[in-house]
Design a protein that fits this description.
The chain has 29 helices and 20 strands. The protein is an alpha/beta fold and 721 residues long. It has five domains: 92 residues, Alpha-Beta Plaits; 181 residues, Rossmann fold (3-Layer(aba) Sandwich), CATH 3.40.50; 68 residues, no CATH class; 173 residues, Rossmann fold, CATH 3.40.50.300; 99 residues, Helicase, Ruva Protein, domain 3 (Orthogonal Bundle), CATH 1.10.8.
Length: 721
């Protein structure tokens, strides 16, 4: 149990100090300054009053040794009027509550004693009664919690009016809390998807309504642990927190200035020195947001405990430890490590669901007096999915960025004031071009080249689904799949079409397509992976979740951390628990996917379908090029035979290679061909952009398209004459 040092002096000694101390410093100024300078970080000043100052011993300090050193430091000014002693922390905390309650009853007691002057016996009896009263009241208002006292539930009310607050006081507290909550409610409403943080603010406001000035000081010892992903409006959260703390009267009733400090990596030899140097600087009246993500697996280290002890000694300063959103076991571990040294209150804000994202967007648009049509919301949803897929989604920041883009585009493109307040489909499509496909999924599948076997497999899966509808007793089939094959063989394209087909058949209620990779599922820090993977699956409920290069989850992480396998464990659970509302398709190279399945029997048993995508033949590659080339631009007739000769001459080793990009290679060649055509058109001054044999010949001369025969001597294609 921690101990407190009490230094007290009499009134006579107080006046002696005024006469003899240089500069006229009072003991309440001079003694604390002297003790802190002599004992440095071994003690921490808790409170200074007119004739008393209180220090707490740092963790691990020997009480007797500190007393000896303190007496030596005070020897030059020691006298009969100066007393130094040790007390238990709980005793002093309890006595503080008694003093507070005595003061609150002082006015009432004065009114009750407006009678004849009492005798000495009556005075003694009255004093004993007053001394007993606060003990009963304090025991009903506070319960022991660890090393100190925290607000607790009241005991059953006793008949005596002195043991519980009267109804008038309760009504006053409720009224004050209602007023504060009404003042803060609009700002709390803006904290979408953060119920735990809203509860923290309400808790703080309730303390503000019920605590007196002395008790409010207790909040100055509380620090905070905030688990939230980057991009959420943490700045707004901190602003609300400091305003709520100001209402309590803690920190002198001032609004703390919010600052931020990123902990350098613990692997940096100078990290601790850098952090220590920063914390030792004056931070009075500040709330400091500490980014400790790099320290999440080092919180049990002696270095971090040393940092926490420094934080503990910082006066009139609040600290918020920031980590990414993590699972509950990891959060509990972080709490335990920090609360070993500090008083801690933890809060988690999970990743935003789409309903939260839309609500944020609606409110943000409303702040500009704008709204959005239903058709525009459909495209907005796709735009958010695109932001999430490319790794650039930053929670509320990205949502507001998208909204600003839409608003600015609307204002620039349309000057009619009657229509400026409504974001329509065309406005969103200009920001996020969405290809509308009028064809059915069957027509789209039939248009693909070289997938006859795949088409037959998909038809078999659809037939099984139809059979289940006709015979429900057969049980719903599990539709999770794995697509195996080399790059560019159509895995992603077929997966998109399959999602559309299952939507058309009524198997999927939403039918969207979510393409994700290892980067989207696996976190960087302990405890971050499972909730991140679960959030990805949650977003894809009712749709298709396509994970490309899924075998990367099985490979050991850098540094030996097993985050990828943790993602697989979470993914397997989601596949099983939501098998009727989620289709997961894992894709990748054949050999690597086989290795993944062999190492995860639980995964293999939940994926009954494997669809194999082979490399395209030369003729199929030529057909794919023709589809690309003739889809948009006019082409000269002599282009086709030259393209046919090029693909027919491709080496066998190349088209059967594991690294060959297949249709992706063909698409790149097509894009290079029309790029050559655009340059030629510009030089010749012609208006029409048209693909010719010359454009194709120039394109295949670029190094990435100059294929060599197996002998390595003769390039395939055209050469300069």
């Amino acid at each position: 149990m921690s101990r407190f040092i009490f230094i007290e002096w009499t009134s006579d000694y107080f006046f002696y100090f005024i006469d003899h101390v240089e500069g006229g410093d009072t003991p309440s100024v001079y003694i604390p300054r002297l003790v802190e300078s002599k004992l440095q970080n071994r003690v921490k000043l808790e409170r200074t009053e007119t004739e008393k100052c209180i220090f707490s011993l740092a963790e691990g300090e020997n009480a007797q040794q500190v007393l000896d050193d303190l007496n030596e430091a005070l020897a030059p000014i020691a006298g009969d009027g100066l007393q130094v002693r040790l007390e238990d922390e709980e005793f002093e905390a309890f006595m503080a509550q008694i003093d507070e309650l005595l003061e609150s009853l002082e006015e009432e007691d004065e009114e009750e004693t407006k009678q004849d002057t009492p005798t000495e016996e009556e005075n003694a009896a009255k004093e004993a009664e007053e001394r007993a009263r606060p003990f009963a009241a304090a025991s009903s208002l506070f319960t022991s919690a660890g090393s100190g006292f925290r607000p607790g539930k009241k005991s059953a009310p006793a008949p005596s009016r002195t043991e519980t607050p009267d109804s008038g006081e309760k009504k006053s507290i409720e009224k004050r809390y209602g007023e504060l909550l009404a003042e803060f409610q609009p700002r709390l409403d803006d904290l979408v998807g953060a119920p735990e943080f809203v509860d923290l603010i309400k808790e703080t406001l309730h303390l503000a309504a019920s605590l007196s000035g002395k008790l409010a000081v207790m909040l100055e010892y509380r620090q905070y642990l905030l688990a939230v992903d980057a991009g959420y409006d943490v700045g707004a959260c901190m602003d609300i927190l400091v305003d709520a703390l100001r209402e309590t009267g803690a920190f002198g009733g001032r609004s703390l200035a919010v600052k931020r400090f990123n902990f350098p990596s613990p692997r940096d030899k100078q990290a601790v020195d850098c952090i220590t140097e920063y914390l030792h600087k004056p931070h009075y009246g500040e709330l400091i947001l500490l980014d400790i993500r790099l320290w999440m697996d080092s919180l049990r280290s002696e270095d971090f405990r040393h940092i926490c002890r420094i934080i503990q000694s910082c006066d009139k300063t609040a600290f918020v430890f920031w980590v990414p959103f993590v699972d509950k076991p990891t959060m509990a571990s972080l709490e335990a490590a920090i609360s070993d040294v500090l008083d801690l209150r933890s809060v988690s804000i999970p990743p935003l669901a789409y309903a939260d994202i839309r609500l944020i967007a609606e409110r943000y648009l409303a702040s500009f007096d704008m709204s959005m049509t239903d058709e525009a919301w459909d495209v907005f949803r796709l735009l958010i999915r695109k932001e999430q897929a490319d790794g650039t989604f930053w929670s509320t920041s990205s949502v507001k960025k998208v909204c600003r883009d839409m608003v600015i585009h609307k204002l620039v493109s349309l000057l009619d004031p009657d229509k400026r307040s409504l974001v329509e489909l065309a406005d969103v499509q200009d920001i996020c071009p969405v290809e509308t496909e009028a064809r059915s999924s069957v027509e789209m599948l039939d248009d693909l080249v070289g997938i006859d076997e795949i088409r037959a497999q998909i038809q078999g899966i659809i037939s099984q689904i139809i059979a289940h509808r006709q015979h429900p007793e057969l049980g719903a089939p599990c539709l999770h799949m794995r697509f195996t094959g080399n790059p560019g063989t159509g895995k992603t394209t077929v997966a998109r079409i399959l999602g559309k087909m299952l939507k058309e058949k009524g198997v999927l209620r939403i039918g969207e397509f979510f393409e994700r990779s290892r980067h989207d599922l696996v976190g960087q820090y302990i405890g971050e992976t499972a909730p991140r993977t679960a959030a990805v699956c949650r977003d894809a409920y009712g749709s298709v979740l396509f994970i490309d290069e899924a075998y990367a989850l099985w490979h050991e992480d850098i540094g030996g951390k097993d985050f990828g396998k943790e993602a697989l464990t979470t993914l397997i659970a989601e596949m099983e628990n939501h098998r009727d509302d989620l289709i997961v398709i894992l894709a990748g190279y054949t050999d690597e996917m086989d290795e993944l399945m062999k190492g995860n029997s639980g995964l293999e048993s939940r994926i009954p379908f494997e669809i194999k995508f082979r490399n395209y033949t030369r003729d199929e590659l030529y057909q794919i090029f023709c589809k690309f080339a003739s889809k948009v631009l006019p082409c000269d007739e002599d282009l086709w035979p030259e393209a046919k000769r090029y693909f027919d001459a491709m080496p066998e080793a190349m088209i059967n290679s594991k690294e060959f990009a297949n249709a992706r290679f063909v698409r790149n060649l097509y894009e290079r061909t029309w790029a050559k055509a655009a340059l030629r058109q510009q030089l010749e001054g012609k208006e029409e952009l048209r693909l010719t044999k010359i454009d194709f010949a120039k394109a295949i001369m670029d190094p990435e398209f100059t294929c060599e025969q197996s002998s390595g001597k003769r390039p395939v294609g055209f050469s300069k004459k």
